[in-house]
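Reagents: none. Just compute today. Dynein axonemal assembly factor 4.
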Amino acid sequence: MPLQVSEYSWQQTETAVFLSLPLRGVCVRDADVFCTENYLKVNFAPFLFEVFLYAPIDDESSKAKIGNDTIVFTLHKKEAVMWEALSVSGVDKEMMQRIREKSILKAQERAKEATEAKAAARREDQKYALNVMMKIEDEEREKIVRMKENERIKATKELEAWKKHQRKAEEQNIIQREDKLHQQEKQIEEGKKLKHKSFPRNSTSRNLATKGSIQVNFTPRVFPTALRESRVAEEEEWLHKQAEAQRAMNTDIPELSDLKEEEKNPEWLKDKGNKLFATENYLAAINAYNLAIRLNTKIPLLYLNRAACHLKLKNLHKAIEDSSKALELLTPPVADNANARMKAYVRRGTAFCQLELYVEGLQDYEAALKIDPSNRIVQNDAEKIRNIIQGTEVKS
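Predicted 3D structure written out:
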């Protein structure tokens, strides 16, 4: 049974009640204080104190201070009026029970409202945090999009500059080839004139001129067209360039002095790069081709094979650069280098398509088909690129 505490003291003003409740050994940790606008209870085992207040108070602004074996309450009145007593008089047990139950229900409702308010505030905080996070993510996404767009613009500008340079180089090559062809035609004509002047007019020819019939023997033609329209000059130029490429060795590089003799051979390095490519060790293959190119910059297959490695590693701009360099060295266009030129066009066209520059890619594939019109794989790929440009096929 709890011990009812009946000893207390209180004072009042028109707006507040000051209640002092002595409890020996009372502390914040063990004291249970329950207060509503009409009811106040303190439970500190084995002591129990309760009072049914004379008039309503503002329990939310009222305070309790615990210490020095005493609890001091400051109760703020809802109405500014002097009380006749601290507790209401004439309260029987049944009414006391109803007041207790009503106070407990009200306290539970208030606690529920407070819990819901906290949950709502927490949801608002979470919503705010989520909005902030989404805003940050949107900003990061926009930043990435801007970076990609800047990179695309930069790549497009570099590509346009490179194409302009290639056009100039191609025009220069055409002019040089036309000059060379003109010189060869001139030499052929001069040779014919010299041959005509030096032809002997002997007695046999004079006798033949006096007779009524002349027998003429023609030398059979090797080519179906005139000599100036054949590919002999270009074939000879290609063979000459290949011979020069074999001799164009650069062994004066200081850091190459410690290499073995076979490692200073570009052909040996090319074969090594090919074997590494076959095992999908593309970086090592590139290193082999790099060293070979440092030794000899005139071998087109080194650039062509390195372009294939760059394609595998998605180094697309480098693949375009190496394919173009290979095409530059694969001149003049003759039957011996036709297969290499077709590969160079296909690899450069593939790199263009992976950069989503489909028009440029299609131009290279069509150039490859001019070299090998019966290649079904190149035909199918070119048709796919045309469909992408026309919008009838999904990019892959």
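Strands lie at 3-4, 9-12, 16-22, 32-35, 39-44, 47-52, 63-67, 70-76.
Action item: order primers for follow-up constructs.
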